[in-house]
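To whoever is on call:

I kicked off a structure prediction for a single chain this morning and the downstream step that reads the tokens threw a length-mismatch warning. I double-checked the sequence; it's 779 residues and nothing unusual in it as far as I can see. Pasting both halves so you can look.
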Amino acid sequence: MNRLSAPKITASARDMLALVTLMGLGNPARIPDPLRLHRAQLDRSRRTCVARCGLFLVGVACVWLMFGRYSSALALSGWSLAMIALAIRTRCARHGGDGTSRTVRRHGFWAFLNGCAWLAVFPIVMPHASESQLFALWILSSGLMVGAAFGYPALPLASIAFLCSVGFGSAFILHPMMSFGHLALMAGFTLLLLLSNMRQAIDFAARLHTSQRLEEQSEVVSLLLKEFEGSSADWLWQTDTEGSINSVSPRFAQALGQEPSAMEGRSLVGILAKGTEPAGHRSAALVALARKLDNHEAFTDLAVPVEALGGLRWWELSASPRYEDGQFAGFRGVASDVTPQRENADRIAQLARFDMLTNLANRMQVTEALRDALEHVWQSGQRAGFLIIDLDRFKSVNDTLGHQAGDRLLMLVADRLRAVCGDRALCGRLGGDEFAVVIPELSNRLNLNRLALAIIETLSQPYEVDQDTLYIGACVGSAIAPEDGSDAETLIRNADLALYRAKEEGGGRHFCYEPALHHAAQERRHLEMALREALEKDQLHVVFQPVVDAMDGEVVAFESLARWTHPEMGPISPAKFVPVAEEARLISPIGEWVLRNACQEAMNWPPHVRVAVNVSAEQLGRPDFATVVMSALAHSGLPAHRLELEVTESVFMREGTGAVAMLDQLVKLGVRLSLDDFGTGYSSLGYLSRAKFSTIKVDRSFVQGAARNVPESLAIIRAVVAMAQSLDIETTAEGVETAEEVLMISSLGCNKIQGFYFGRPMQAADAQALFAQRNSRVA
């Protein structure tokens, strides 16, 4: 299949087309604007018009000097007048023409007339001139030809017309009198000038075309820049080699409240630095900008503070060095106001490093400060201190007054903490009601203890929140670097262990870390893992301690107690594993397991014997606990009135858990309730009115005190018994170990007795054996 393609135009062909257009003989498509081209030609020719005219007049004068004595004065005078007239005509034509190709051709015509007029001198002087004089005349003519070749660089038609008329015309006139060598020299010289002139004309056209494209591009760039200035937030600026401004956009100057002309010649860094720095100092950003300018380095998004209209602003500068002819010529760049973005970034950084509620340092910043303090410890050889603070009774504030009141209380705590620590330490909030203090430089432990006690005393003072007076306390755990830890994580962990010990010791205490605490923590962790395994592998078992009637000593109930015998560690005391179970949130599954086993075992006892099961506050806080109790009763077949659930006063300290409502549900099921350890906690008669208890258990500490005739213990037991009798509630005395104590408790009016005197906690089989022995005695 044949395909037609446009013929390729070679470089020589393009040059010829350009030359034809320059001569006014055609308008090829390569020249987009011929009229503009011809006007440029004429403008260039007009600039050399005076020099061409002067050259012709000099030629006329030379002819008079060379041939005035030999030739006809009249003829030379007529020729000279003709040359002068043509020169004047050429001078006048300098201001004429409309820039069309006809004007270009007209210039060619007059150049041809000038050449012919010059040739007219040859017939005048030839009769009286020697060969050498004629050759000198030709040399003079060649000078005019050189002047014409360089005088008409933009008008090749005029140049060709003059060169051909003078060069070839003079050779033709002189050929009878000149040798072949002279004629060849004349012709060759003329051809050389013609070619040189054509090359100049082509170069002129190329330069004009390039200049035209650059102007168009410049116009496009100018339009784009104007559009950029109008629609973009960026402003343009430019400096010279010394870093001084030599060009700025109006918006750049307007942002600084100045005129663009007033900024030229001034240092860019100096303008930006004005009003943003103290005397003799310069911000790090401006120092970096000055360094970039001095080193001729490009930079992007360099943020600098600027005193502009409206106060201190943040600008971002980007620039690249510019070069002219390989030499550094300054910088050209853009600037934009990024103050809103900077403020947002600062706000985000504030949120990332500070607690939103108290404006104290958050956990991340506290950790960073602690790491910095430890680095200073290793460099200086000094000590650093770290405190963790936990508020006492804060949860009750949230539960009773709401979280808004709790938040306001935390803000007051933060203010007091800042005041007591001052500038010597960094205060932070780790979360919830837990705070921290980093002391970068600590002289000794005594100062740390003083600060901890001052914090406890300050935070324990009453607070006024929404017309309520609140009382809370604080516990403090502390650790010292490098003795108690060489890294931030270890120091935080050890201070937390000390805080845990302080909370165990009671409110308002400070405890400093000791290596034994770490050992105890590891032991608790090991015990927790073993306890989880024991629960999965059924390593726990239930024992039962009898509760007897104070009048006849008959067993009326058993208290079920969980026991744990580890395969390797052996028997583990409840005082040891129960706190671990509570901390690890295992107390609920253990309590449910005890409940099911106790109900199942109680079915082996006489129908009048009840079983008592201890219930934790965590269990009562679960909304499904009533379902758990119902399930245990249903699976065992035990009547509800034979199950007695023992709770302590601590369940009433956890407001909002639903414990009271849960107790009401259990009572409606027919389950009996027993208030354990009454009198040892926050005893209040209100507890007895909030739940229908069947039994109040008097703590063994009062029993032992009464056995020693301690008046307070005796008075407390009598008061509890009297109160219980008035409320139709039975009383059980715990911890009875001797016959004397049995008699004393009976005389005080207690209904039931529990203690080692009647039996230690025993296995289920031993509990059943008690009834078998009684039945055999009766038989």
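Update from on-call: the warning came from a stale cache, not from the record. Cleared it. Sanity check on the structure: The radius of gyration is 57 Å.
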